[in-house]
Amino acid sequence: MADWARAQSPGAVEEILDRENKRMADSLASKVTRLKSDTDFTSVTGLLTGSVKRFSTMARSGRDNRKLLCGMAMGLIVVFFILSYLLSRPRT
């Protein structure tokens, strides 16, 4: 407001309003970006929560499922190490 009171010409008022408008537009853009990332994080959290619930249910359901679960976990660990090795070796 103080800038508006000091403005001497209509051009100066327009310049002040334009600067303020750009500042507010930048602020809004950053807030929208933050909200989009929060939404992505929330959907990933929901997906992981559902997976953990299914995993826990399967682990508590019986001995046969525990053997299957252990085999799946070991297989995923092996796949992880193979992929990390393949991605980390130098490309020729």
Summed up, the helix count is 3
**CA-based gyration radius:** 28 Å
Give the helix proportion (percent range). over 70%
Order of helices and strands: HHH
Structural class: mainly alpha
* Main sheet record: none
**Mean pLDDT across every amino acid position:** 79
Q: What amount of the residues lies in strands? A: under 5%
Distance N to C terminus? 63 Å
Q: Would you report the number of β strands?
A: 0
Quaternary status:
single chain
Shape: elongated
Uncertain stretches: none
Q: What do these coordinates show?
A:
- This protein has 92 residues and is mainly alpha-helical.
- 89% of the residues lie in helices and 0% in strands.
- The chain has three helices and no strands.
- It is elongated and about 85 Å long.
- It starts with a helix and ends with a helix.
- Its main location: membrane.
- The chain crosses the membrane at residues 68-87.
- It is found in: Membrane.
Short description:
The chain is an all-alpha fold and 92 residues long. It contains three helices and no strands. The longest helix is centred in the middle third of the chain and has 51 residues, at 10-60.
Q: Which key terms come to mind for this protein?
A:
elongated; mainly alpha; Bet1 golgi vesicular membrane trafficking protein like; 92 residues; transport
